[in-house]
Amino acid sequence: MVHGVDAVAGILSRCSERHLNIVLRTGLLFLLIACSGAVVAASPPVDVIADCVLCHGTDGRGNEVVRAPRIAGMEAWYLERQLVAFQRGWRGTQVADDPGREMRLVTVMLDAEEFGPIAAWFAAQETPDPQPTLTGAVERGRQHYSLCAQCHGARGEGRQSLGAPALAGQNDWYLARQLHLYRHRLRGQVREDSYGMQMLAMIGTLIDDQAVLDVVAYINTFSERPGIAVAAPHADGPGS
Amino acid sequence: MVPGYSRRKVLELIGAAGGSAASYQVAAALGLLTAPGPMVKANVQRLRGARRRVVILGAGVAGLVAAYELDRAGYDCVVLEASHRPGGRVLTLRGGDIVDEVGHRQVCHFDRDPALYFNAGAARIPADHVALLQYCRELQVPLEVFVNDNRNALVHDDRLFGGRPVRAREFITDARGFVSELLAKSVFSERLSQPFDAPDAERLLDFIRAYGDLDSNHFYRGSSRAGYRQGGFIVPGERKQPLDFTALLHSDFWRYQMHWAESNDQAATMMQPVGGMDAIIDAFMGRVGRLVTLNAIVRRIHLEHQGVRVAYAVNGQEQRLRADYCINSIPTHLTAGLDHNFPRDYVAALRVVERGKLFKIGLQAKERFWEAERIYGGISWTNQDITQIWYPPGGFHSPKGILLGAYTFGDAGGEKFANMTPAQRIDVAIEQGERLHPGYRGYIENGVSVPWHRMNHMLGCSARWRPEDRRLHYARLQQPVGAHYMVGDQISYHPGWQEGAVRSAHFALADIDRRVQADLALQAWN
Question: Which of B295, B300, B333 is nearest residue A65 as measured by Cβ atoms?
């Protein structure tokens, strides 16, 4: 058992420890590169991961109840860019964006040097695809999506060269929420956030809430596996 | 009595078949219990050599009650607590303590003095919360009176009386006087007097006159209950002029806080443990602390055909265990984010419970200036964001004191404060307190703030059930799924109260006891 006093001391000394860790890790990294010629990603501090999964769920699977999306399996470059965006206030500063503001607070207490390892760690996690929670007109959504496909890919697989993340496998409620933020100029309105501005420029085609639902419903079809019914584990409750 | 069976043996058989409640009732009927009293004990039957393992998630009141009861009944218990401290939302802050708020980890800067503490979570115990009080008695947690209602405390509304605070006694006395006068008039009218005969109407008027302190002509002309303007001891007391009735009518206090202490959970006599609410946690930890692992973050709960498998991380290292039963007090909104294999309807129920955003501030005052204003304990109410100020219910006339400087109930208020930095929150609390107590800023030395919906491993206080959700989903969450039981104040009709946590733990324990005893009885027969 870890004593409370130790834990308190641990938290208090965390900031300085982290700086030390970063220095040590950077040194280690150079050593590894020098020895093997390969880049080995440092793993992020366990207490930082604990802060992340508090909201984002085990391994970053997403938890709608606290409005935290799936981050497991997302592209590391995208996750890292969003951590930067939150920390610099490109996201998470709007009064109407409570979940974004909560996220921003966490990034502000982190060192930007940690973003890479955090992003890489979550990118490497595998969690089940989320269940759809929204419904819309898939066919109309498909038509809307033709524009989205130019950057995000025909099956929502994402394209790093264009800075567009994968959409397949993301929580539908989260996609809808972000589209809502873009539509109301609550995301992508900061000049430094060039990819956000790029997205803002494309949002005009989704003219209302129904269009958002439709396109999200179409994105949901990307992660459906035909012929495999989504299992409801222990539908009757084991042993009861 | 069946020949050959002792009373004790019969009770065991009945207990195995019908659970502890049945054996309790029969024992009572047989006169084996000296003082029946109310059924507030868990009564988990001893295992007597059998082995059963229970994993308990969360070392708050519900988890510790479960561990305490199961441990002394011979169960093998493991308690996993995510935080660096036990207690959950029983959080007493003292100088040097960490406030583990996500995004703003604070240190409490109160003087290191045991008398200077702040109950940032649970803070009062009504006399009707008998299950919790039973543990206080059993574990010898010393209690003292908590002052919840004080007629000398203030009522402030910046839209009334030019923002001048008035004493609660003045407000309440005048409000009752005005209402009584109106009621007396209506008693004279045809309609209301009809169901009464003349003597009854007279009795009704007697009540109204006493209730509102009306004069003999049934007019309200002020009352000494409101406190004298001056005099009253060696010269005659001079009554205050009644407040403006329209102003009273337009205040929030009139329709809400004036009736605060009428509710069953807020009425005198209320209590608190001496020295801080966490005396209850300390008492439980004294008994079962050896079973508790701190900093253990649950990752996975998988139901099996029999029993439950749990994975958790301590310092990033995953550990796994299997248990016959799992008692889970992790907030529903965080349980929903774990790796689990719960059935769909159970997940749906977990997801509907909303999380409250209660927010509190504690302030250290270098002088108990409020006692010079004749305020000893109790609550002043204001329509400003801080909503209320609490004065310490004990330690009267000692040098310093800890005030509650804000306690908001609504989401908007909680969000507003949570979105400020800790320093800004204290500043706002002082600025608003100044409206009730001129010179407030000069007395406040430091403060600490606790936004419960931003607290690590919590992200909410307290659980909120919409009536429709409760109707559709409450029973589902209260009942086990396989060998997994959700507990805590969240699974009760008293969210936000320790009594709800205790009762929900007892509910789960009774069911586990019933299942285990039935299981053991079956094994004995085979």
Answer: B333
Domain A138-223 matching CATH 3.40.50.300: the answer reads no
| Per-residue model confidence as pLDDT tens digits over B45-99 | 999 989 999 999 999 999 999 999 999 999 999 999 999 999 999 999 999 999 9
Question: Looking at domain A42-123, which CATH architecture does it have?
Answer: Orthogonal Bundle (1.10)
Confidence of residue B123 (pLDDT cuts 50, 70, 90): very high
The whole-angstrom separation of Cα A32 and Cα B62 is: 49
Question: Among partner residues A12, A66, A106, which is closest to B333 by beta-carbon distance?
Answer: A66
SS3 sequence of B228-272:
EEECCCCCCCEECCCCCHHHHHCCHHHHCHHHHHHCCCCCCCEEE
Q: Which helix (H) or strand (E) holds B76?
A: strand B76-80
| Three-class secondary structure of residue B221 per DSSP | coil
For chain B, what is the mean pLDDT?
A: 92
- Which chain A residues are closer than 8 Å to B105 by Cβ? 11, 109
One-letter amino acid at A55 equals C
Does A65 contact B336 at a Cβ distance shorter than 8 Å? yes
Report which DSSP code applies to A164. Answer: B
Nearest to A1 among B104, B293, B333 (CB): B293
What pLDDT score does A228 carry?
39
**ipTM of the shown complex:** 0.85
> Which amino acid, A45?
P
Q: Where are the domains of chain B?
A: 42-83+291-353+465-513, 92-152+267-277+357-454, 168-250
- Whether residue A101 is predicted with pLDDT greater than 70 in this model: the reply is yes
Residue with tokens 């009554």: B239
Cβ B316–A49 below 8 Å, yes or no?
A: yes
**pLDDT(A108) > 50:** yes
- The whole-angstrom distance between B82's CA and the closest CA on chain A is 10
The highest-level CATH class for domain B42-83+291-353+465-513 is alpha beta
Task: Give residue-wise pLDDT tens across range A34-91.
Answer: 444 444 457 888 999 999 999 999 999 999 999 999 999 999 999 999 999 999 999 9
Q: Flag the least confident range among B190-204, B206-220, B383-397, B445-459.
A: B190-204
- Contact list in B for residue A105 (CB cut-off 8 A) is 102-104, 454
- Predicted local confidence at residue B200, as pLDDT: 84
Residue of B nearest to A239 (CA): B482
**Chain A residues closer than 8 Å to B344 by CB:** 232, 235
Domains B42-83+291-353+465-513 and B168-250 share a fold: no
The class of domain B168-250 in CATH terms is mainly alpha
Q: How many helices (H) and strands (E) does chain B have?
A: 18, 27
Residues of A in contact with B85 (CB under 8 A): 4, 7
Domain with CATH 1.10.760.10 in chain A: 42-123, 138-223
Give the pTM: 0.87
Nearest CB partner across the interface for A235, out of B107, B295, B344: B344
Interface test with A, best of B100, B303, B306 (most A CBs within 10 A): B303
Q: Which CATH number fits domain B92-152+267-277+357-454: 3.40.50.150, 3.40.50.2000, 3.40.109.10, 3.90.660.10?
A: 3.90.660.10
- For residue A201, the SS3 value is helix
Question: So what's the pLDDT on residue A204?
Answer: 86
> What φ, ψ does residue B155 adopt, rounded to 5°?
-120, 125
Helix (H, G, I), strand (E, B) or coil at B491: helix
Q: How distant is the Cα of A16 from the closest Cα of chain B, in angstroms?
A: 15
Least confident stretch, A54-58, A229-233, B20-24: A229-233
Give the pair of three-digit tokens for residue B44.
Answer: 């988990």
